[in-house]
Amino acid sequence: MLFFLLHNILFLLGYSVKGDYFDYYVFSLEYFVFCFAIFLLFEMDTIRIFSRIFRWLGLLAISLAFIYGGIGVFLFAVESQDYEADRIFHFGSDGKNYETRRYSFGFATLVDTRYTFETYRYYCYFPFEKKIDKSDFFGLKTNLNIGEDALKINIVNAGSSQQLVFKSTDGKFFVKPIR
Predict the structure, then answer these.
(1) How far out from the chain centre does Cα 170 lie?
(2) Contact at 8 Å (CB) between 134 and 116?
(3) What's the pLDDT at 139?
(4) Side-chain half-sphere CA neighbours of 78 within 13 A
(5) 124 and 157 share a domain?
């Protein structure tokens, strides 16, 4: 349980193990342990009010997740698009290494495609990364050719802050400050 708590705190602060899949596995395992603990509470004969409240709230959370998962079975092809990067950009700036993952979400019935770019700073000899930015673009609402594979991404210094620069091959660019 302490491992899951530490993982969740680090994930909320933007730190994770390099790549997406390790976090997916840990969250899945965490949900399994949570369900196991809640169902174990139902097997115990306990009269403490805190245990009863906790197990009923846990059962409510499991039921809502079951309903959401049941709907997700039918919409899996649509929902799962956002969970695997379709393009990864590697670049360096000021001796630091960065990786930007592009996730695209589009479907036959949707008018536009949403592109989500998540930029991470990673460390060469360690399997850890820190999320530094998340940017969303819609293909029809930006003048940038965001869907092309030759898109260039870089981080530049602007005084005391840094900016993330997206540049397409036609010379158009988009600049976003990094907080």
Answers:
(1) 30
(2) yes
(3) 76
(4) 9
(5) yes
What separation in angstroms does the CA of 59 have from each of 40, 48, 62, 147, 165? Answer: 11, 17, 5, 43, 46
Instruction: Show Cβ contacts of residue 38 under 8 Å, excluding neighbours closer than 6 positions.
Output: 54, 55, 58, 59, 62
Residue 139, CB half-sphere, CA atoms under 13 Å: how many?
14
- Which position has the higher pLDDT, 172 or 4? 4
Closest-CA residue to 82 (of 68, 72, 92)? 72
> What is the per-residue pLDDT for 77?
67
**Main-chain phi, psi angles of 54, to 5 degrees:** -65, -40
Q: Are residues 65 and 100 both part of a single domain?
A: no
Going by pLDDT thresholds of 50, 70 and 90, the confidence category of residue 149 is confident
7 lies in the same domain as 52: yes
Report how many domains make up the chain. 2
Question: Which tokens go with 13?
Answer: 């602060």
Rounded to an integer, the average pLDDT of 110-120 is 86
Residue 124 confidence (pLDDT): 82
What is the residue range of 28's domain?
2-74
